[in-house]
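Narrative summary of target 7.
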Amino acid sequence: MNTLAVVFEEPTRLSVRELTLAQPAPADVVVAMHYSGISTGTEKLLFTGRMPPFPGLGYPLVPGYEGVGRILEAGATSGREPGQLVYVPGSKGFNEARGLFGGQASRVVVPGAKTIPLADHVGEKGALFALAATAHHCLEPDPGRHLDKLPGLIVGHGALGRLIARLCVLYGAPAPVVWETNPIRMGGARGYTVIHPDDDTTRGYQVICDVSGADGIMDALVNKLMPGGEIVLGGFYSEPVSFTFPPAFLREAR
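Modeled conformation, tokenized:
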């Protein structure tokens, strides 16, 4: 069985070519992919070759972990049925390339248990499952009961930053401030404020959540913490995360 896939042949070199798929096991499904999101964080690092050491990393690879497709074939123990629309978190079933994370292909082989059934009306919005889960994991485990532990400052107004900010608003927390340096991404706020970091005069956030993935940002975040404050790292970083210790020590940062 063949598939047409986006392949990162090596850093900065991309192709679209046919690959052969592994033989599906009884627990697998074959999915015709309809939509696949593009990550400007993780996948950009894979494309540029700046991804730090990561399990299974190697070229050539098929990227993609934000997919929606319809099941063509379902194994006897897959727990799925042909015709179902499902969210697909990627796949590893390519013979000539690694799956990292393997969703950018016309069809994929993936364990049925890793897929999430979707109602047909969800459509392309189902590709947001991974980002929505990440946004949720960046928050306090029981956010509705601990509004004071939700971030007052969110760094980055990409898709993930928007989801986190909107979740804070939905839970009833005070509207967060969002930092963004790209004018193109500063619009679209719903119930919160987006500003350039240079324009933020607030000192003393209890919780700061960074989803920018910007290298060297920690010192700026520590300087915005109130005593006993917490920094949540929700981005993906190409360089080791480090910070100047004394300011964090004096604030008893977490």
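The chain has a mean pLDDT of 93.
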